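Narrative of accomplishments. A recurring question from our advisory board has been how the design workflow behaves on a single, concrete structure rather than in aggregate. To address it, we present the structure tokens for one chain from the evaluation set, followed by the sequence designed for it. No filtering or post-editing was applied between the two.
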């Protein structure tokens, strides 16, 4: 069943158009990857899907309902989870507090945090550390866990390997595959690391100058 369907989407920043007639769909439980160099519009696409920037044309359907007019918080409550490039965790809050904030914002029960901490063993020994003192890899793991505290139906994951050591990249791959098996997670992934993309994505699209094209990693790069 199709979870997210995008048709003829256009968006940008003021007079600068970035996305041009973008269209794709992703089914429940699918891992779809989008490859592309910097400046091609990948992060802009995610911001448009999450409601952080307005679209100027086209449609976004989630679970069969048009969500283009909805603000970002209503899209999040509908089940769209977003892990932006740079993670954007709260540096002055602990790991646990970061996760509690996400759970509370999504009206999820308090035990959600403890349940998810059990799924992220790397966070156990650092649960009382401030987010700002964590390594890049630890922050990325926290960003994933925090997103999941809102019980999303789809996760938009933007450049998760940026500034992350190889061992944690492997851990992220294993965690995402496990979550798909356990809770039916659907993933839309933006990435430049072809090897990482190949280890996760069921199929891959290529973004070039705001256009979305079909292409396997070896064809896209």
């Amino acid at each position: 069943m199709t979870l997210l369907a995008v048709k003829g989407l256009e968006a940008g920043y003021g007079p600068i158009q970035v996305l041009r007639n973008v269209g794709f769909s992703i089914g429940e439980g699918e891992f779809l990857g989008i490859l592309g160099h910097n400046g091609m519009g990948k992060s802009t696409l995610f911001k448009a899907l999450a409601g952080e920037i307005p679209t100027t044309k086209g449609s976004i359907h989630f679970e069969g309902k048009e969500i283009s007019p909805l603000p970002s918080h209503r899209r999040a409550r509908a089940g769209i989870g977003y892990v932006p490039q740079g993670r954007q965790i709260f540096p002055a809050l602990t790991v646990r507090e970061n996760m509690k904030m996400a759970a509370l914002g999504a009206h999820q029960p308090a035990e959600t945090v403890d349940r998810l901490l059990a799924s992220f063993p790397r966070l156990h020994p650092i649960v009382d550390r401030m987010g700002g003192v964590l390594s890049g890899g630890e922050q990325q793991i926290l960003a994933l866990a925090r997103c999941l505290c809102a019980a999303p139906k789809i996760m938009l994951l933007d450049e998760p390997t940026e500034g992350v050591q190889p061992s944690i990249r492997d851990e992220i791959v294993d965690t995402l595959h496990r979550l798909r098996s356990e809770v039916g997670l659907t993933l839309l992934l933006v990435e430049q690391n072809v090897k990482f993309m190949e280890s996760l994505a069921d199929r891959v699209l290529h973004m070039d100058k705001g256009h979305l094209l079909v292409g396997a990693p070896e064809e896209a790069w």
